Amino acid sequence: MEPILRQDLRSARPLSGRARVVLCLAGLMWFGLVGVGLWALWGYKNTPGVAAASPHQWPASSQIRPTEHRSTLVMLAHPHCPCTRASLGQLASIMAHSQGRLNAFVLFIKRAGAAPDWEQTDLRQKATAIPGVEVIYDDDGHEARLFNAATSGQVVLYGPNGQLLFSGGITSARGHFGDNAGENSIISFVNQGNSDLTETSVFGCPLFDPQSECRTSIDDGKNQ
Amino acid sequence: MMERTSKTDPLAESRYGSLLGPADTERVAQLFAKHQQDIYQSTDHMFAVLMTLQWIGGLVAAYWIAPKTWVGTTSQTHVHVWAALFLGGAISSLPIFLAITRPGRASTRYTVAVGQMLMGALLIHLTGGRIETHFHVFGSLAFLSFYRDWRVLVPATLVVVADHVLRGVFWPQSVYGVMAASEWRWLEHAGWVLFEDTFLLIAIKRSVSEMWNISERTVESDKLNKELEGYVIQRTGQLAAANRELESEEAERRLAEHALRDSEARYRLLFESNPFPMWVYDLETLKFLAVNEAVVRRYGYSSEELLNMTIKDIRPAEDVPALMEKIAKGSTEPSESEAWRHQKKDGTIIDVEITAYPLSFAGRHAELVLASDITERKRAEEALHRSEEHLRQALKMEAVGKLAGGVAHDFNNLLTAINGHSEMALRRLTPNNSLFRHIEEIKKAGDRAAALTRQLLAFSRKQILQPEILDLNHIVVELNRMLQRLIGEDIDLLMSLKPDIGKVQADPNQLEQVLMNLAVNARDAMPKGGKLMIETSNVYLTETVAGLHVSVPNGNYVMLAVSDSGCGMNEQTRAHIFEPFFTTKEVGKGTGLGLATVYGIVKQSGGTLSVYSEVDHGTTFKMYLPVIEGDVIEKKIDTGELEILRGAETVLVVEDEEVVREMATEILRESGYLVIDAKDANQALSMAAQFDGKIHLMLTDVVMPQMSGRDLADKLKPLRPEMKVLYMSGYTDDAIVHHGVLDQGTAFIGKPFSIEQLTRKMREILDAPVAA
Is B358 a domain residue? Predict the structure, then answer.
């Protein structure tokens, strides 16, 4: 029978008290560092973009015509924003729950002077694939401006009479899939005609450059 | 830190094996602890790899899902990418470091558990909170259960709970999808984790129990192995001892076999190389079972032939009954040496001395036989026997000869007187005289006595021979008529004489005597008639001739054979026929001196004699005389009437025997001679000296008391050189003869002599020319 030596049961020599303390401190530092990092990440992810002050009535100058007898949903999206992928996913969920009682438009910003096909991204394809959703290119953000949208993923819901029902995001955080208040509110509006929640935070990339006309316009919109 | 896996472990206690004793518990615990430690370390290593891959995977996922973040038309690297890189690296670094540097320790496991769950949280964030990514949490718990240490699930679960509690407090929508959630909402999510923890705990408990069982089985197995090993060692030792014993026995057996082979080889060599013929034969079948080389050499048969033969096959046919009789008697004891006759392949008969020893050969009742060829020895013994017989015979003959010689000397002197006076008286008387017949009978008796005396001298070889070179055929032819008369008309005398036979030197008178004696002997063997054959031929004799009584020098011989068709002789008779006075004839019909005389004459003549006889078939005597070179002196054997030759010369007669001297003196004086007589040598010398006239011849006795006749002649030679000498004697001595043969040129007349013989001899000498 082969004897079992004590050292066989140990992977290394016992730590001295100082080393143990050092190790504990290192562990705590590591834990703290990681906690801070995660906290920062969580903060980033839960930090909303600029919310839109959408007009209470459907903008008359909009080239998009709301559907009669049905609510109309418009999502303003940046064609390259990775956070918007989650918003589209949630839109698909809303469309599935709306059961044809909702018209939806996804307007991808199409910037003038941008590279060819700049707006041709997988987000557009994903949006196109959602039943009941019409994808429209918003040249130079004209429509976004009409709806005072500044963050990709901004959703506005208008009732059959063209009155604003809901404005906000339909994700719980940046690029975060899953149930969220905005989504639930829209579904409630569409299916039940009312909802307690009419505004939510929007998590997504800014649609316009910081010093762009967009920002001004938004500010102007707020002022209106 | 070393885990405590003592024997107080309830799992260990509950699973304590009945086959193990208390002393084995610590061993079980040690094995269990070692196994556990191995699992901890291997799981640490697994997580080191897994977390590295997770980090890389998170980075790839972040870059793939959200490589950039956009602000209008400008973009920059997405925060998720940096978070995956740095935060992911930070989360993974310590667990990986500890897993590599300090594997197996609880602190490492706990750190790994925390890190793994934090990594799960990060990945969930990086993937947009997809529900699929949440399975990383459950997967991580499952992976952590690989440690088989339920305690690592605690920090892992706490991390999950903390994540949900904190986010539920600060960002409830991000975790619960609602703007405001209950403060216990985290339990809903943590419950699933705890649910999994429950199953994992059960699995870990069973696994640990199995590990303990394995440890027990291992200890039992080790124990059994040790016992088995001890048993194997014991058995191996026993086998080794047995093997050594076997090897020792094998060595002894080999030595014994070697010794046996050596012994067998030596004995085989002794058997095979033995110069004496040796064989083993089956006592039942009498077949040879083994033969040595000497048998092959001596008997001429090959080994294969012998092994297909029986011992009867090497016996002469006439000896086989005796052999069978001896075998029938049987014996289990070594036999005394026995003489047998064996027959070789070429038919030659050899005399052998057999010594036999009964034995068991290849399971057969057999007999070992040693045969010693005694043919030569037997021949030598026979030759020695014959020599001894001849010596005995010679001694006997010597004694008889001495007696005969002594008697003959006196007899001859007396007979000389008797016969001489009788002859002279008859000359003076007429047949009508009444005394004539008496004197004539005295003369006949005297002649027979003289013949008998000659025979005595002849067989005792004391007679004086006067050899001549002669032709045996001539002798035979000359005697033909006499022999014919001698054997009578009932017997046919046949002759077969080779014309070119060699010459021999012998006394013709003695040869005649030989022929006559053999003829008489043959005649007596054929009382009813038959055939008498006389043959002569040349032969070459070697030293040993079958049938000869003595050996003779190699050389050419003339053979004279006298054969009869008579009754023959048996062996016993044949052995004694040459002995004097031995006769098979009736008393009075034979003297027993005939063949003895023949033998004496032949031997005295340098020859030899053989006899071959078969009962009822006849007998053959063969006389061999050596061939000699020389011319034959033609001499007519005078068988006619005798006459007295006269003379006038002066004769000195010297004779110590008075009757002989007076008779000789009277014969010579009546024949005209002037005689001077002397009674001894001294007187003769004196008279010769005193006598004035010429003395022509001296007739002297040879054997005289004072001086022999030879010495007397020598002394008178200077005084009377012209005087011739005639010796007279009744038997030989060394005076004038050597080995019975008269010296060359010596004149001699034997006693008794007749008047005619003496006067004829006188004239032969006196008329012969004087030698230069």
Answer: yes
